[in-house]
Amino acid sequence: MNLRRARLLRQGRTGPGPVLYWMHRDHRAHDNWALLFAAGLAVELNRPLVAVHCLDPTTTAPQAGQLRFLLNGLLETACDLDGKGIPVAWLAGDAPGEVDRLEKRLDAAALVTDFDPLRYKRRWMEQSAATPGCPLHEVDARNVVPCFVASDKAEYMARTLRPKIHRLLPEFLEDFPPLPPNLRPWPGTAPGLAPPELKQTVDALGNAPLWPGFAPGETAAHAALDDFLGNRLTGYAVKRNDPGLEGQSGLSPWLHFGMLSAQQVALAVMRTRAPAQDKEAFLEELIVRRELADNFCLHRPEYDSVTAFPDWARRTLEKHADDPRPYTYTFQDLEQARTHDPAWNAAQRELTLSGKMHGYMRMYWGKKILEWTPSAGEALAAAIALNDRYSLDGCDPNGYAGIAWSIGGVHDRPWVERPVFGQIRYMNFAGLTRKFDVAAYVEKVRRMERGEELSLRRPKGK
Ligand code: FAD
Hints:
By secondary structure, the chain is α/β, with parallel strands linked by helices. 50% of the residues lie in helices and 6% in strands. α1 links the parallel β2 (19-22) and β3. The termini are far apart. The relative contact order is 0.12. Flavin-adenine dinucleotide (FAD) binds at residues 240, 248-252, 255-256, 285-286, 289-290, 293, 359, 362-363, 366, 387, 391, 393-394, 396, 398-399, 402-403, 405-406.
């Protein structure tokens, strides 16, 4: 593998124990550069490889449905790894502290972990790097071009990141090798005891909603990918912008939880005979837009605050801060889809019913929250809270970047000035009706509510 995917966060003493792979973003046994890097080290040092997951419910996934999706997927991955001679140690609590305790107990040879730009994960890495131990390597297994290789600064927009990514794709868009066959197996049973908190958490999640349209785990992720490649990639460039159609891939929940590798998706798309315009449009979203979101969160650690907005956007929003709002809604009004706008209400209902809102409506949804709340800061907080609470793919850099784009002009340019928005790009209901059949979309969501349409994406028990 290309070793520029990894960086050393801590030097240290190579103990006589196993190599540890601390999995906290890329929850998969296949197509995972961090796992492959750890396996390579284990073979080189002739040590067993042990995977570690630490459940930290306050930070890992805030809602029961998301946590249940994660844990059910992890159980499949753990089974798979176990079959390959890589046991999984389940920990719970303060992640860097717990992983450090396990590392010391096993006198590990090396610790390998996933890269993640979110603030709390950066703090985990700082804490781990500052604690003496074995060498600690961080591997970017999420992005095709590692985030820390693609650019060393916050990119202004897709136009500035795109050439950097495209230049590096020939170096990084390579096929995945299999795991080395000569891994030394771990002698005995899994080294971490499943803690009682884990069992309690799994039991308590028994009634949490699971959306049958999004079954957790790597097998389901690959089935969804095959379905997209076979049935919807052709036509993607045109159909993806019509929320009444199933024109998008629907892969974001699995990508978000790291149950599917974006690189493997890109390779699979490139191998198809779909029209070039559809492949290009899809790869632009999957690679450039998605990697731009990681770049934003890494280089703008205040990604969920108005201070992350570009200067022009902050100035224009301040200038219009006291403009009268045509409508104002409370958080509860928004949450319960009680606005005057049928398209917005349909989008919000689609989100709470199915665990995912159509991508085109996400833009409109965010912009209307700006228009209907007393300030940009409150709009940002409300949009993030709703997205992270109800979206199966929430709590993701894509969400923070997408919301900052909608409300704060991030990765965008100034547009014609108008009330409330200032120079932030505006969207309105009339614009939606020019793009697609809004009535058909609203009716589709009504049918979802009645269980007559997309029942597969309806959470159990709702
Ligand atoms: P497809 O169109 O099939 O795209 C394939 C993949 O490309 C997606 O799964 C995603 O990983 C990536 N992608 C597509 N569009 C974007 C984009 N604009 N930015 C970054 N990556 C993209 N995406 C999330 O994954 N989680 C979120 O919480 C999230 N919240 C958003 C909130 C707002 C207000 C906005 C405007 C966008 C948000 N997005 C979010 C980005 C985008 O809308 C979703 O990634 C997309 O709708 C996911 O559906 P899909 O997998 O069917 O997309």
